[in-house]
Amino acid sequence: MPKSKVRKKTDYNIAPANRTPVKVKAGPSSPIYVSVMLGLMLIGLAWLIVYYLAGDQIEFINSLGAYNFLIGFGFMVAGLIMTMRWR
Fold it and tell me: What is the pLDDT along the chain (87 residues), one digit of tens a residue?
C-alpha cells in the first residue's frame, strides 16, 4: 500500500502584541455605588410585583398598561449594567 504524502505545515510568525498597559482604578467600589445598584434591581422587582398584585387597584399603574414591564425591567437592567463596573 502506498504511503500518503506528508503535508507541509505553514510556519506562522505571530508578531508580539504591542499594547500599552492600562491603569486600573485600585480598590473596591464605594458602598453608595453598591446600594444604588442593588436598589435599582429591587425597585424594578418591586414595580413588577406591585403591578401584578395591585395593578388594577392603582390608577397610575393601571393607566400605564404594558409599559409597566418596560419600567420594571428597565430598572433591573440599569442595576445589572452597573454590576459591570462593580469592584
Answer: 777 777 666 666 666 666 777 776 667 889 999 999 999 999 999 999 999 999 899 999 999 999 999 999 999 999 999 999 888
Q: What span, in angstroms and rounded, lies between the C-alpha atoms of 28 and 19?
A: 26
- Rounded-to-integer distance, Cα 80 and Cα 62, Å: 26
pTM, entire model: 0.68
Alpha-carbon gap, residue 7 to 61, rounded angstroms: 70
Query: Hey, what's the cell of 42?
Result: 429591587
- Per the document, the length of the chain is 87
Q: Can you read off the three cell numbers belonging to residue 15?
A: 508578531
Distance CA 56, CA 48 (A): 13
